[in-house]
Every structure is written in C-alpha cells, then in structure tokens.
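Thread: Newbie trying to understand structure tokens

Hi all, I'm a second-year student working on a class project, and my supervisor (Dr. K.) asked me to get a predicted structure for one chain before our next meeting. I've only ever worked with sequences, so writing a 3D structure as a token string is new to me. If someone could post the tokens and maybe explain what I'm looking at, I'd be very grateful. Here's the chain:
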Amino acid sequence: MQTQIKTISSKFEAIISWLVPIAALAAVAAWFIIAPEGALGKLDAIGYAVCHRIDERSFHIDDRQLPLCARCTGEFYAAGITLAFQAIVSGRRSKLPSRGLIAVLIAFFLAFGIDGTNSYVYLLKQTSAGALDHIPNLYTPNNVLRLFTGSGMGIALAAVLFPVVNQTIWRELDNRPALEWKSLGILVAIIAVVNLLILTDSPIVLYPIAYISALGTLSLLVTVFMILWIIIMKQDNAFDHPRQLWLAFASGLTLALLLVLGIDLLRLQFTGTWSGFPGLTG
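---
Reply by user tm_fold:
Sure, no problem. This is what the structure looks like when written as tokens:
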C-alpha cells in the first residue's frame, strides 16, 4: 500500500514539474500582453495591483509618474533591499529578531499606520466637499513622510518574513537571529541615504528606484506564494540547496502573476485607466 502511495505521489510530482513551468510561462506571457507598453509600463502593471497610484502622492521622472506612490515606493523598495541584504548577511539564520528589535520594528509599523491613517483622513476631507471638516488632522501629510514611514514598514515586513522563509525551506537551520542590532543599523542607514537621494528627484536615482520598488513588490508576492506552495505540498524543511527550489519558485511566480493580473483586470474594468483612482487627488 505504501509503495502504491509513493508511486502515485511520484507521478503527481512529475506531472506538476511539467505543468508549473508551462503555467509560469503562460502567466508571464499574459502579463506582458495586458500590461502597458514599455519597460516602465510593465512596472506600472505591478504597482497597479497594490497601489492607488494617485499622481499627486507619487514621485515623478520629469512628468512621468513612478509605478508606485511615495509610500508604496518606500515600502517595497526597502522590503526588496532588506530581503537581499539579509540573504547576503544572514544566510540561513532562522530565528526571529530579539524583543528589543521587535519593538523597533513595531515602532516602524505604528509610524506607518499613523501616517497612513492621517493621510487617508486628509484625502477623504479633500474629496468630501467639507462634510468631514470636523475631523482634525494630526498634521498635513506629505511625500517625505510617506517615503520614510513606508520604507520603515518595508524593513519591518522583510525582517520578519526572511527568518520565516528560512524556517520553512531549509533542512539544516542556523538558529541565530536573522537580524541583529548592528545589521539593522547598517540597513537603516542604507535606506535613509537612499531616501535622501530619492528626494533629490534626480532621474539617475528615480529610474532604478522605479525598477527596485516594482520588483520588490513582486519579490514579496513570489516569496509568500512560494512558501504557501511548499507548505501545501508538504515539503517543509526538505531543501538543502537553492537550486532545489526552482519548482517552488516557479509556482510562487505563477501565483503572484495571476494575482497581479486578476487585480489589474478587475481594477481596469472598474476605472478604465492605468492611472490613479478617478476623482482622488491631493
């Protein structure tokens, strides 16, 4: 009986190993077809699935809006850099940060939430024709605060996600914390410098940031779906080398692109534009 189950399981895995790459290629092709023209147009299609893309709340290369608003640009470029930084510095470290570091990450999260809520209330007041004037704002929101609080949130997300990924993937784990005070300090300094460079509005900075932020968005989605796939397939802690992850990665990429495509098509159907939600400004 066990031999039959193993045979069926092997056949199923063989079928999946053929179907997933085909599905991944189909998803990539569909995404290229539906997304706007040009390299930045493809990045817009990624940002369109997760961001309101309000023009006034975004950075611009000349008159060209970046794929994500200021807050989402900060969040997703910082998350992408944090994941890459930890992959280089931390390797297979799988322990969550210490309580002190968790407190700092929670502070980043709270700053993101407070600034986001204040900004949203301000937006509602701008579009409510005075109906919400009795609701006070803590301060006037701006893209500088959106960028910095967004990037703090990106660090927090990736700092928690990275050790969880390691805990799920690897057969042999390094039980040291994935993020320590020194590495967090270096990471925060890097992000702060990049933020200051973004605020110069130089195309030399904004072009790569457009790519890093959009690809950071996609990398988070792919990572989450890859881990979900590994759990569903009951392959937890079954990997010894990154090359063994190709099928899980292809599965994560396929699911991530299908989600992006689905949201893009739904939003495009309702709004009829690849830009920000109609009627929302300020």
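A couple of things are worth pointing out once you decode it. The radius of gyration is 21 Å. Residues 2-271 form one domain. Feel free to ask follow-ups in this thread.
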